Amino acid sequence: xxxxxxxxxxxxxxxxxxxxxxxxxxxxxxxxxxxxxxxxxxxxxxxxxxxxxxxxxxxxxxxxxxxxxxxxxxxxxxxxxxxxxxxxxxxxxxxxxxxxxxxxxxxxxxxxxxxxxxxxxxxxxxxxxxxxxxxxxxxxxxxxxxxxxxxxxxxxxxxxxxxxxxxxxxxxxxxxxxxxxxxxxxxxxxxxxxxxxxxxxxxxxxxxxxxxxxxxxxxxxxxxxxxxxxxxxxxxxxxxxxxxxxxxxxxxxxxxxxxxxxxxxxxxxxxxxxxxxxxxxxxxxxxxxxxxxxxxxxxxxxxxxxxxxxxxxxxxxxxxxxxxxxxxxxxxxxxxxxxxxxxxxxxxxxxxxxxxxxxxxxxxxxxxxxxxxxxxxxxxxxxxxxxxxxxxxxxxxxxxxxxxxxxxxxxxxxxxxxxxxxxxxxxxxxxxxxxxxxxxxxxxxxxxxxxxxxxxxxxxxxxxxxxxxxxxxxxxxxxxxxxxxxxxxxxxxxxxxxxxxxxxxxxxxxxxxxxxxxxxxxxxxxxxxxxxxxxxxxxxxxxxxxxxxxxxxxxxxxxxxxxxxxxxxxxxxxxxxxxxxxxxxxxxxxxxxxxx
Length: 596
What we know:
The chain is an alpha+beta fold. The protein has four domains: about 110 residues, Immunoglobulin-like; about 130 residues; about 110 residues, Immunoglobulin-like; about 110 residues, no CATH class. The protein has nine helices and 30 strands. The longest helix has 29 residues. The termini are far apart.
């Protein structure tokens, strides 16, 4: 006989057991979304790691605003998925690295995400930020790794040079093999106050192997510059600062086994460097010393030494070698007053390398003798200081005699000639005594007189005919003289064409054009301000022009042209850009001349 009561009881127990299993399975499959903090309390100089972890893939993740903290890295995303004994395990997280901005108690608010069409939110948590601690206990973040493995260094060839002696600064970015750099941009470029500076172009960034503080590193040369100190004493070189994007390995791998990287931005600086500049010794300093520092050769030559009056010859004063070729004045040519001499034409063939300036500079004088004779060109001396030997050197040219073969004599020579001719003896020709003619054999001839002739009346009326032309010419001249603005413009334009004529001839030839344009700008200031602008930096030129009440916009345009001339040596410039710079230079010189 079947016991229905026992069967009913057994069925009830089986139902309860199956329901429990179902509920347990539902608990295992429940969606979780939570926020985990690396620590509940930290110092002002420590880092906080915040992880938002979920066990299901979701969309539309919305992080909190992290009030009181600065996000220095994140969000970085990681996914973990595995099968163990037929059971699938899945985890996805969004991670942030935070830096506190102030002391106090702050709340990390809720984050939200949508999973399977439903919105889930994390629970807000409080964080206490205390004063900075001596030894931060948090684990190494991407910022910490970048700090230890990224260095910007300014290598200086000499820290105690003489005044106007060349030194080289090379900026190197050292990167450890543990990290990689994907991008960088300058934040603060040094201005090199109290230095004459010249950038040396870096042709592409190529990584090289080296060491930094005894450890292997890779480095790239970012910037090279040659400096000539213009003051003695302690001079500071401002730091170069860069914003660098760094990829730091996290030690984790993605779903496909690839190494995962955390990206962060770091600001690195080469630091301020101090140069101790020695003054040039005053002992045994030549009286004609004009600031030349280096190792030079000095010559004075002429294109010819024999010529006729009214012909021309060229005399060239040239200094060549290695040193501050752009920063001193050449000696001037001393000539006899009987020789007519024109303003010299300055020529510069200087290239700047890591060793400093090398090449030559010269002044070429055009000389035209007016009278016959011999004219000596007195010897010229040139003195320079050689930093290698620590001594002054003076070079003196030889005397050159100009022999003018043919031409008129000077007043003193004519007087001597007349005196000599008065002393000559009288030579008899044998015809001193002849008979006088008693019959003159005179005949009547018709004589025409000028007075009363047609020519006489034409010349008499000529002045009357010229009076209307003179009136018209006078009115035209008065109109031109009254046009003050027009006269200033014409004068300024003529001046601009004078200084820019050499640059205009080189349009289309980038290097020659910008060399000529830069020389024209410096020569203009030299002529107008009576200064050697090559001895000054752009900041000094700006200061001088402001003292002369030049408009700021005009000064900015003038300095921009000088910068273009320097940049053009190392950057591609089109013909359109050259024409634009030429037109701009003409306009700037015209405006500046009117203001001066």
